[in-house]
Design a protein that fits this description.
2 helices, mainly beta, about 200 residues, single chain, globular, 6-stranded antiparallel β-sheet
Length: about 200
């Protein structure tokens, strides 16, 4: 998904990268392209451009009906990523009564250019609609998660590249992940990360 859908000129691709080709032992996704803020000349109704995004596919239905993710037992969304340092957002879509609602949170990369594990507390996601925070704020419908994805909406022209090794729900990092990421406590984000979020 990117702004060519409305006549824009950004380019976005989501490619599969084979194990070992990016420094990860696993296969991973490469989200890349270029952002353009140029507006379509033949469509004056379009006032803003310059975005790109992707999301997971809907889960196939079962004999019992629609299949959704239940993340209620977990505290965090975890992502193993290698970022270029741009301002990406994590988007969570639920089976809500407003289908265009998304719950969003910044994807804070502590070490751009290196593989790292990012933890986001489910309670810290913000309910939005078309990129704007809406009221009343409501928690994510934890038993009815449809998709998870990543978007880039900083409207800064130029190339972007984000690698995603895996996405999962968890109650904390394993000892191996915590050691690899240099965290003080495997259950929480380092204080340096939290100060970045406050800034």
């Amino acid at each position: 998904m990117s702004d060519p859908d409305i006549g824009g000129f950004s380019k976005a691709n989501l490619d599969y990268m084979s194990p070992g080709s990016t420094g990860s032992p696993n296969g991973c996704a490469r989200f890349h392209g270029s952002i353009s803020t140029e507006l379509p000349r033949n469509n004056p109704q379009v006032q803003r451009s310059g975005y790109a995004a992707w999301r997971t596919l809907d889960r196939p239905p079962t004999i019992f009906g629609r299949s959704l993710w239940d993340i209620d037992p977990y505290t965090y969304l975890a992502m193993r990523v290698k970022s270029d340092g741009r301002k990406y957002f994590v988007n969570v879509q639920t089976d809500s009564i407003v289908p265009t609602d998304l719950h969003q949170h910044r994807l804070f990369a502590r070490r751009p250019g290196e593989w790292e594990t990012v933890l986001i507390n489910w309670n810290e996601f913000v309910r939005t609609n078309h990129g704007q925070a809406v009221e009343p704020q409501t928690e994510i419908l934890r038993q009815s998660v449809k998709t998870v994805g990543v978007g880039l909406t900083d409207r800064v022209p130029g190339p972007f590249e984000l690698f995603v090794d895996r996405i999962w729900a968890t109650n904390g990092l394993t000892d191996e992940d915590a050691k690899e990421d240099g965290r003080l406590d495997k259950w929480v984000i380092k204080e340096a990360d939290r100060s970045e979020e406050r800034g």
